[in-house]
Amino acid sequence: MSEETLDKIVSLAKRRGFVYPGSEIYGGLANTWDYGPLGVELINNIKQAWRRKFITERTDVVELDSAILLNPKVWEASGHVSNFSDPLTDCKKCKARARADKLIEEWNEEKNTEIFPENWAGEKTPTSDLYEFININKIVCPKCGKLDWTEPKAFNLMFKTEQGVIEGEGTQIYLRPETCQGIFINFKNIQTTSRKKVPFGICQIGKSFRNEITPGNFIFRTREFEQMEMEFFCKPGTEMDWFNYWKDFTYKWFISLGVKEENLRMRDHEADELAFYSNATTDVEYKYPFGWGELCGIASRTDYDLKQHIEFSGKDLSYFDEAAKEKYVPFVIEPSLGVQRTALIVLNDAYTEEEIKEGDTRIVLKLHHTLAPFKMAVLPLSKKLGDDARKVFDLLVQKLGWNIDLDMIGSIGKRYRRQDEIGTPYCITFDFDSLEDSSVTVRDRDTMEQERIKIDDLLHYFIKKFIF
Ligand SMILES: [Zn+2]
Predict the structure, then answer these.
(1) Ligand 1: distance of its center to the CA of 7 in Å?
(2) Distance separating alpha carbons of residues 425 and 118, to the nearest angstrom
(3) Is residue 64 a contact partner of residue 196, using CB atoms and an 8 Å limit?
(4) 156-191, pLDDT tens digit by residue?
(5) Average pLDDT over the chain, rounded to whole?
(6) Which contiguous run of DSSP H or E holds residue 339?
(7) Distance CA 435, CA 451 (A)
(8) Measured between alpha carbons, how far is 186 from 337 in angstroms, rounded to an integer?
(9) Domains, the chain, ranges and CATH?
(10) CA 323 – CA 332 distance, rounded (Å)
(11) Do 209 and 203 touch, CB atoms closer than 8 A?
């Protein structure tokens, strides 16, 4: 894999209607992307696959869809107002902007030392310390080579906006930077109305916004993205068992979607790397075309969030354990992942160039059945057969309820190639013989083998074939 692979995926994504550059006709808006017809299907299928494993198939997990706009006190309680920031510095010579902590990190890597080991943690590491360190060690601008930085300023990553119609008189609020706080503030509502007993989990899928300084690598890091998060509430003292359980569960979920094991690895955070509220965190990392990077995080968040909300709201968010007759604030395990990042890795793993005969290659997206935008495509061999093919399409789409393509345009060979490129697992060709024998030809995307199947047997055939 290489950067070249990423270019090929970006190009295919645009050509076939998965992902377009955002606001393209106006020259774009940096690092925004719009999801076209097939992209929407892929994204929805990823979310559906996650919901199915994490919610539907379980009896101890429920779902929430909270507002994106929350009372600004939520973000004071969570620590985001004071701590969710990057220390930014500008090169006075060439105007390059950099993260002071990253400059130091890279310097450490280069020198193979860890002289300034602490991670940037908002108020906990004064920006003046970073500034002093940079100047003493002469960490120059990577762009122009000069040492002339401004003193770093903590730049909050939350998007600010105003609620209310009168300019300047509204309340300043934020677009949520994570979905999990909506879960914490609804813990009591959900626990009492769903009658769930601890241990249980609450999931949420939704948009989050972060004013990242260095977005990029296609849809890997964007300022607007969708998260799939679960907060699993458990009794204090049991959190390490649950932490290990959800680590394993999340990893297996990726494997079940056909993600290649050689591209995945687990990385436990070192003690000095842990967020201050966490007593254990593991990242699932993926080997992207641009190198290993974070895919998903599983964090043991202790009782930090609930306790903060108890303090800031003055409400009792503790749990009464009937069986043990004791009251406690639950501990929390959080598997958290990005929908778009998952889309990027499944596209990357699925992208295949195959030589089918000498000098003839095809591009095929070997997507897992459950993720493929179209589960199958119905192709009349000739336009004259369009109406009859349509009947097969109607039968399948109505009985199976899956997204199916009816593709009439182009030679049959070209249509096969198009369906291969967008990852359609099966093509169903209706030809002139079909009028006589009431059968169609089913072509398998991966093996390219063809099979003659009675139209009456199609439903049964596909229900058996499909892996969800
Ligand atoms: Zn510079």
Answers:
(1) 29
(2) 49
(3) no
(4) 999 999 988 777 777 899 999 999 999 999 999 999
(5) 94
(6) helix 339-350
(7) 17
(8) 20
(9) 3-79+160-348 (3.30.930.10), 85-156 (3.30.40.230), 374-465 (3.40.50.800)
(10) 20
(11) no
Please give the Cα distance from 286 to 264 (Å, whole number).
5
pTM listed for this prediction: 0.92
What φ, ψ does residue 327 adopt, rounded to 5°? -115, 135
Confidence category of residue 118, pLDDT binned at 50, 70, 90: low
| Rounded Cα distance, 89 and 97, in Å | 6
Q: What are phi and psi of 262, to 5 degrees?
A: -70, -15
C-alpha 104 to ligand 1 mean position (Å):
16
Model confidence pLDDT, tens digit, residues 323-359: 889 999 999 999 999 999 999 999 999 999 999 888 8
Looking at this protein, which amino acid is placed at residue 444?
D
How many of the other CB atoms lie within 10 Å of CB of 107? 18
Task: Report CA(459)–ligand 1 centroid distance (Å).
Answer: 64
In 3D space, the residue among 210, 207, 107 whose CA is nearest the CA of residue 156 turns out to be 210
- Residue 304 contacts residue 239 (beta carbons within 8 Å): no
Taking the C-alpha atoms of residue 76 and residue 391, their distance in angstroms, rounded to an integer, is 59
β-pair partners for 355: 361
User: Measured in angstroms, how far is the CA atom of residue 6 from the centroid of ligand 1?
Assistant: 29
Q: Is the dihedral of CA 178, 179, 184, 186 positive or negative?
A: positive
Q: How far is the CA of 211 from the centre of ligand 1 (A)?
A: 23
